[in-house]
Amino acid sequence: MKKFLVLFVLFTCTISFAQKTDYDTKTNIRYYPDADYKNDNYKSERCVLDIYYPKNVKNFATILWFHGGGLTQGSKEIPQALKDKGYCIIGVGYRLSPNVKVVNCIEDSAAAIAWAFNNVAKYGGDPNHIFLSGHSAGGYLDLMVGLDKKWLGKYNIDANRIAGLIPFSPQCITHFTARKEKGIPEKQPTIDELAPLFWVRGDAPPTLLITGNREMEMLGRYDENAYMARMMKLNGHTDIQHFELDGYGHNMADPAYPLLLNEVKRVLDLKK
Prior knowledge:
- The protein is 30% helix and 21% strand.
- The chain is of the alpha/beta class.
- The protein has one domain: Rossmann fold, CATH 3.40.50.1820.
- Residues 49-150 form the BD-FAE-like domain.
């Protein structure tokens, strides 16, 4: 376990050449087959993604970003802090509770990730360099798809092809919205098939868990992630870290972005 004091010097992770690179953005791309959207206005609204990518660059890495909001609110976004860093950023929209069940949120996330594996090369990206990140509910979706192989298996994609999992303050026990669906109180800890902790495994992709301070985070979120890191290690995972951001609570995305970028660079360097 590492306790990390955030310093502004971390922003030196910016890749210098990327500042001279031009970028393009395509918006509202459907990631399910067109037939799936027929007569479904809600799916047409929510199940789309935006892609921001460097022009005239080959084999760039891609970060899929899943927004937070408790699986009940929020919209796709491409964080400003991730732009102009030499990477492709994909902001993913997904359906929300109570319009759909939590399993449908996970299904949407997996479909968007599968789209990335099958399409980033068309934009110049390397499908072997795809990272998952997101804040809160978005981080939960990262872990569910990255650890439970059945979600990407539906698309004949091995989840171990994911280059790295870098969630911000994710729920690691069963998500509170999934518990609500089952009539379980918000503060009743539960670990079932809708909990990332249920799917810990030693052969998962490199993982960096980032949370706020243990006394400032919401509803024991630090402790869930600490336990997640411990159980991954006990199951043989050798490339997992948990960073605690001193002085920050659940709204810890801004100081976490440099850690995300550093982790992407670290993993890419290992692949060279």
